[in-house]
Description:
This protein has four helices and eight strands; from the N terminus they run βαβββαβββαβα. It is an alpha+beta fold. The protein has a single domain (2-165), classed as 7,8-Dihydro-6-hydroxymethylpterin-pyrophosphokinase HPPK (Alpha-Beta Plaits). 7-(2-hydroxyethyl)-8-mercaptoguanine binds at residues 9, 43-47, 54, 56, 89, 95, 97, 123.
Amino acid sequence: MNTAYISIGSNIGDRLEHLTEAVRALHTHERIEVAKVSSIYETAPVGYTDQEDFLNLAVSVETSLDPYTLLAACQQIENGLGRVRDIRWGPRTVDLDILLYNNDNIEAENLIVPHPRMGERAFVLVPLLEIAPAIGHPVTGIPFEVPGDEGVLLWKKIEEVEQLLLGI
Ligand code: GSY
């Protein structure tokens, strides 16, 4: 079995509903089990800033899928929830980014793991470190540290999210 960490974000329409649907879709996949969910954070947009605030969370999954098939499953969930890829870094119904897959270092055309920008993004690291506090970079072993949590506000606490999304 493999462990992967996935960052999920939404900033269009019913953001909570989109996150909920995305986590449920992962969890109901026959070869993916969502093991942990973080709190949900409301976060200021990074990159293309002229857009609405996001809701973001991180999940850990146990999966028998290889990373590329996991990526395809994530993209299928995005497409199923109506994601249209138009503006790069622009608004999105839902976005699932594979952050880490075991301790693998993957540099393929369609998949880079660890996610190349995760070390600079508080909206990724605040939720990730909540569910994996001691996690480090698979190559360097250096623990990830949040580069200041400005623009990242707690929106729904982890206990409520666990209940909502995992029924625990
Ligand atoms: O890479 C994920 C999409 N995205 C986000 C996001 O999820 N949250 C915030 N706060 N900013 C973002 N910019 C992009 S692109």
